[in-house]
# Entry
Amino acid sequence: MGDVTPRIGRFYGVGVGPGDPELLTLKARNVITTVPVVFTPKKTSGSESIARWIISNLVTKPEQKVMELVFPMLRDKEQLALSWKKAADTVWEHLSSGDDCAFVNVGDPLLYGTFVHVLEVLRKSHPEVKVEVIPGISSPHAAAARGLVPLAIDDERVAIISSPGEGNFIRQVLENFDTVVFMKINRTFDRLLVILEELNLTGKCLYVRRCTTKDEEIVWDVSQLKGRSLDYFSLLIVRK
# Structure
């Protein structure tokens, strides 16, 4: 008899929504409760994994493994690349053993998701791995729902910006799009607020922190946020 090619596990990128465990899709729930290995990201070895908290009541089988992968919040691209490779190598160890694996991502895996970086490394080093993405409810969609703010109507244009920085770019986006969602604004909000005041848009904003969780905060008068230390999981919807 010839050699039997070892089975390689399937890699799932699973979106688990913005925070409320009830916002998981049925397919996400089915994958998480059946795969042998579940990976959850977190910022540091001592920090809480929000993704793990969301699925904490789902992984109940004793034979299932939940493994936390550390992705430090760094600006050094070389250090970031090393953390992505380390995570991809860990995932491959289990996939190459024949285990299906799920990488759990807050929100949607393909919208600023940590999963994307692991996927890119894994596909380069092991292109034979079969990948399936289970989409999740993104924080912009959840925040719009909480505030009853339409993201788009008819032929309106929408922009989603992460970590807004350069002022002229922000002005151009606000001038050219009907709705703009600013994500990861915790370090740049005061600069963004100055531009919103200049364009008379402060009355057309919705700020949401930790959307759909017990720590959720919704603010319509964004001027009162000036000078505050904002949460990483914050976003701002500007609808003109």
Observations:
- The first helix runs from residue 26 to 34.
- The mean pLDDT is 94.
